[in-house]
Amino acid sequence: MKDEFEPKGYVKEKLTIDIVQANIYGIIAFIPVIIIFALPYYLIWGGFVGSIYEYSMLIPAFVIGIILHELIHGITWARFADKGFQSIKFGILWKYLTPYCHCKEPLRVDHYILGAIMPGIILGILPALGSLRLGSVLLLWSGIFFTVAAVGDVMMINLLKDENKGDFVQDHPSEAGCFIFRSPEKGNA
């Protein structure tokens, strides 16, 4: 990666998350996420009765959703990247069986955070909320799964939450993390 910001006085720092820890947090997060969504579902709909079709569609929904999760990152970040979708790379960290989306150019912190949170909202929270209205167990369990699947993204957002929203973030090319480029003139948020 060419450090185009350092000559302009930006200070670079590497920020990473532990993928194993993210997976552990994801397992732990199932409990509160189930309470938040499944308990109201149960109280509204009187149980988790769904059609055989709905339950048979869970695995395909999860597989398609995993692909969509990364695609949503890519589409959102491409919207803010100077080179658009040419700056987006997809892959899998085989050691951890973890798919990823990588933006090859720096983005403003606020744009990076938006791209990080979008899959959790679109595939997780909105379907889970929709299940409460529609009584769909497919939406409920998919929403719960993809809310929990966004734990690593939430961990990244947590690393960036106190940064100046106008500074820049560059995805790390080989680790779960990023480089933050802070402008000394602006200081931290």
Protein architecture, described:
The structure is a single chain. The chain is α+β, with helices and mostly antiparallel strands. It is 54% helix and 16% strand. The longest helix has 27 residues, at 19-45. The two termini are 26 Å apart. The model has no long low-confidence stretch (mean pLDDT 90).
For the structure shown, list the relevant keywords.
alpha+beta, two-stranded antiparallel ribbon, single chain, 6 helices, 189 residues
Task: Provide a quick synopsis of the model.
The protein has six helices and six strands.
Distance between the termini: 26 Å
Low-confidence stretches: none
Shape: elongated
Tell me the total number of β-strands: 6
Relative helix content: 40-55%
Oligomer state of the chains in this structure:
single chain
Task: Record the SSE blueprint.
Layout lengths: L10 E6 L2 H27 L6 H5 L1 H23 L7 E6 L4 E6 L3 E2 H26 L2 H12 L2 H10 L7 E4 L5 E6 L7
Antiparallel strand pairs: 1-6, 2-3, 4-5, 5-6
Helix pairs in contact: 1-4, 1-5, 3-4, 3-5, 4-5, 4-6
